[in-house]
Amino acid sequence: MEIRYLRLIKAIVEEGSITRAMDVLFLSQSALSYQLKEAELQIGTKLFFRVNKKLVLTPAGKKLYSTATRVLAELDETEEEIRRMMDGESGTIRISTECYTSYHWLPPVLKKFKSEFPNVEIEIVFEATHHPIEKLLAGELDLAITSNPEHPEQIEFIQLFSDEMLAVVSDQHPWAKREYVVSEDFQDVTLIIHSLPLDTVSIFRTQLTPKGLHPKKLIILPLTEASIELVKANMGVIVLANWAMKPYINGQVKVVRINPDGFFRQQYIARMRNRKYPVYFDYFIRFLREELRINAETETLQ
Fold it and tell me: What digits encode the pLDDT tens for the residues 199-210?
């Protein structure tokens, strides 16, 4: 049963005559009569009786009219919801990052975004952390924040900002008085990282693995606060972004540049190339870029 037949039955009943139904459906009398015959052929029985020049529903017609009323209302509501989604009025953004420390960017962005788009929900998918690109490709995310621009043929990577990665060490560590360290120096230390696999860890992906280098020992500890405590005890070193380590810098820990000119990491927001995104995604990305630019300028001033 085609949707147009359901609309036909509903119009005839609710308008009370074929003439008024013709006007509502923008059909000629012959076209309306032809569609009604087609609908009855599909159902296999009459849908209307003619009583004193009026069309009265048969039992089958009553059943079909009841179904048409319910189905068309749901269909119209669905079409309106989709229209609002595509116009940026309502919907959901599922987002994740490759690092838990990156989530601190989001609260001010969410506050600003919700004031502009109150009917768009932001769903932070914590279980996708460390694997945002994989989840984006699988359709489990809408956006991913990452520093690893892989699968560029399928994914669009929009630059957010560049941050400097620094080695954080105890004030008693041999590196504490050095201006910088290089990749080869990591072979002699215990390195603390937040998670596996190693190809999601920027120091390994860009500085160590390409040169076939490995630290003397590896400690995997998801919590930054706990990692800093190990650093204070001179039990290892950790590599953090300049903005991530700022709350922990005091007399007990020092920061050391990696490489003479520094080790910088480009952050991106990633989305699928072959997907049409509602307009509110563009606003969310714009708000995120603005927030990160403000943060970067604040860091520079300080």
Answer: 889 999 999 999
